[in-house]
Amino acid sequence: MKTSVGIGLLGLGVVGGGVARTLVERADHVRQLAGCKLSLEGVLVRDPSRPRSFDVPSSLVTTRVEDILDNPAVDVVVEVMGGQTPALDYIVKAISLDKHIVTANKEVMAKQGPDLLTLARKKGVQVMFEASVAGGTPIIGPLLRDLVSNEISSIHAIINGTTNYILTQMVHQGVGFDDALRAAQELGYAESDPTNDVEGIDAAYKLAILSTLAFRARIKDSDVYREGITRLDARDFLYARELGYTIKLLAIANMRDGVVEAHVHPAFVPSDVMLAKVEGVLNAVEVEADMVGRVLFTGPGAGAEPTASAVVADAIGIARNIVGNVTPPTPLRLSENVRVSPMSDLETKYYLRLNVDDRPGVFARIAKLLGDLDISIASVIQKETDEAAQRAEIVMMTHRAREAAMTNALGLLSELDVVNDVGNLVRVEEWE
Amino acid sequence: MKTSVGIGLLGLGVVGGGVARTLVERADHVRQLAGCKLSLEGVLVRDPSRPRSFDVPSSLVTTRVEDILDNPAVDVVVEVMGGQTPALDYIVKAISLDKHIVTANKEVMAKQGPDLLTLARKKGVQVMFEASVAGGTPIIGPLLRDLVSNEISSIHAIINGTTNYILTQMVHQGVGFDDALRAAQELGYAESDPTNDVEGIDAAYKLAILSTLAFRARIKDSDVYREGITRLDARDFLYARELGYTIKLLAIANMRDGVVEAHVHPAFVPSDVMLAKVEGVLNAVEVEADMVGRVLFTGPGAGAEPTASAVVADAIGIARNIVGNVTPPTPLRLSENVRVSPMSDLETKYYLRLNVDDRPGVFARIAKLLGDLDISIASVIQKETDEAAQRAEIVMMTHRAREAAMTNALGLLSELDVVNDVGNLVRVEEWE
User: Sign (positive/negative) of CA torsion B336, B342, B343, B344?
Assistant: First the structure.
């Protein structure tokens, strides 16, 4: 029986430092749980001279990935570098060398997850990736195991802590996007180049992973429609509140009759549903399934310790199996008979804010334009007039309408001479 | 390789009917997930003539447990009878006959769980019990696997749907306990004898299970202090709301330095924390852990389909292992070095409502009595006077105080000639 399982760590950034610290400082605790020692055998870094949040013995540090992958003492490769290149290559090589994998890499798992799982099955090794979505909050495990008897029909998730922090600031401080972003950057919640977060790219990766597991069909990040939060204005939050909503960057996926729709965008969320109350850097994933109904998982979605919590739990799970000489059955079988519907097929309600000329007949023209496209107005909520400029702001909510029709409408509205500006269009999500 | 795994079902009530229905009506789905057929080989009932929510072929139905336990085609015994007797006996016999176990039985798992897991390990079989807490909402699996790298410091849970429904009615309808209970009974959310639910017995079972897993120490239901919801008055909800709280039946467990405290009782919960928003028959478990921080699991805690969701998922997990010829490592090792502190050691804040004589000096006497016991008043919130009767209602919140002191105080207060009635005492839970 093996008494020690060797860990090779790829990356010693925020998460890698947290993982190394846990393995070293909690060695006894981990040993007790795993049934054997988890021994850190090597750490790949780009720049060994860089100061670290946690110092590993320099004898373990290397800049050559071969030192990790070719080391026979390494049983499990823990990849916490992030990004597709070169992480994907390293993971593939590691699997082909019979190493088990623990990864926190959402981009790799979104793009290549099913391929990696297939390769791993062939080689008889495990690929674990709980940390790739919602940090330390359990969601991958529950989808693969605890909810497995269900047919899952939808996911509604807040899975980007940076944008949730920014939106929470915009709600509570009444600040605009730029100020909220700057505050998030100062606190280290947003990167200096925030594109991946604020444009929904990160959330789309995670939604692709969740959808693939939930619907048991390959959903790639390129299948996910996405729209960021940069267009949101402080005014949108004011109107949302008046209407009984808050605004969240939602990752939504639905499955019906073998057709999946998956989209990430800002959405009006009714103030009284649980997701509306998920604030700051918290993440939350709501799963709707036929047997269990709605279940919600909430917790920290990022950070060194929460992410290391999931990474080390995965490593302990693998170590237990190595010690027990167990090759666990593969829990994921993907169906080929699922297709992804284009965003233009979406049907939802919309919030629409327009700046128009303030004169008679304007609203009638807008209403007719929308009506001709089968977009029915549920209510016109606000009409603020700037008398000096003879302009008015019209805020309306529609009944359910097709996205294709709304796209058409936006084009036609912006061509209307009486419409000065299409302020914003935000989809409205309702819970029964 | 085995192509079929036999299921013996003990009990065909609400949950049993849901399990049987799932195994029969979703046979293909289950087969695909398990990698083999899950074949219903027998069903134990007390009264075969009773009408059922789901009819199983009469050839499978028996009143003799031996027909299930001695049937070599039965690999997995699914126990959904509830109650300790005779379920515990049947489970022990089944394990000794090398059957795997799936159970939804919180009473058995609270009282004998660790013994059953030890017995199962010796026999090389699995005991799965996800359905025993929070119905289909995943919490056992996450504690055993996904959060395993953490030291868990506390649990705050709403794990009895009946009482949460009753309390939600009392909040929103302003009705008293008796009316709310009657409404719950009419809807089938409460039993005709509601003792187990309203006295916190059911929640104490579940908290014992959660604490045992979270703290990796044997916590029995008899270790859990409990107090039911029957003393709550509509007035308490009014005062709670004014003070910015709601009232929930909370199951709380804390672990510090090897000492566990576990208690179930009504508690003031600040209106802005997530648990305050868990309404109706929903359950929620909040886990606080050193690495991940706070994570919250919310979902339906009872009902045929949600509970069957967890039971069948456990059965699928076992079937996968049978097909893969895998004996999974035992995830739970219990420490012997943990003790349970008596309730008198608890330190918390209190809400106290007193009916007193309305004359000068009364409040001073009460304040002195409390002060002498080291109970410091944080605020006196309300003082409603009944001028005709010359009586007043005093509502106060204390700072943190010891339970032993408060128990003393209640005794002494009720002896004071100026105190007509100690209306209610409710513990106040705060989140940082």
Answer: negative
Which residues on chain B are in Cβ contact (under 8 Å) with A309?
A: 147, 149-150, 289, 291-292
pLDDT in tens, chain A (432 residues): 788 999 999 999 999 999 999 999 999 999 999 999 999 999 999 999 988 888 899 999 999 999 999 999 999 999 999 999 999 999 999 999 999 999 999 999 999 999 999 999 999 999 999 999 999 999 999 999 999 999 999 999 999 999 999 999 999 999 999 999 999 999 989 999 999 999 999 999 999 999 999 999 999 999 999 999 999 999 999 999 999 999 999 999 999 999 999 999 999 999 999 999 999 999 999 999 999 999 999 999 989 999 999 999 999 999 999 998 888 877 678 998 999 999 999 999 999 999 999 988 999 999 999 999 999 999 998 677 888 888 999 999 999 999 999 999 999 999 999 999 999 999 999 998
Q: Which residues of B420-432 are buried (b: 16+ CB within 10 A; e: fewer)?
A: bebbbbbbbbeee
Task: Work out the number of other CB atoms within 10 angstroms of the CB of residue A431.
Answer: 14
For domain A140-300, which CATH number applies: 1.10.10.10, 3.40.1000.20, 3.30.360.10, 3.30.240.20? 3.30.360.10
pTM: 0.96
A298 contacts in B (CB within 8 Å)? 274, 295-298
Say if residues B135 and B301 touch (Cβ distance below 8 Å).
yes
| Encoded tokens for A29 | 């605790």
Amino acid at B340: V
Across the interface, of B137, B291, B333, the residue whose CB is closest to A136 is: B291
What distance in Å separates the CA atoms of residue B30 and residue B28, rounded to the nearest whole number?
5
Q: Tokens 């700046």 — which residue?
A: A355
Burial profile A353-387: b = 16 or more Cβ within 10 angstroms, e = fewer = bbbbebeeebbeebeebbeebebebeeeebeeeee
Give the residue from B137, B129, B99, B116 showing the smallest Cα distance to B334. Answer: B116
Q: Are A214 and A143 in contact (CB under 8 A)?
A: yes
Which of B32, B150, B308 comes nearest A291 by C-beta? Answer: B308
- The CA distance from A283 to the nearest CA of chain B, in Å, is 10
- What's the rounded Cα separation, in Å, for the pair B420 and A161? 53
- Closest to B295 (Cβ–Cβ): which among A35, A148, A299? A299
Q: Which CATH number fits domain B343-428: 3.30.1330.10, 3.40.50.2020, 3.40.1190.20, 3.30.70.260?
A: 3.30.70.260
Cβ–Cβ < 8 Å for B426, B266: yes
Closest chain B C-alpha to A310 CA, distance in angstroms: 6
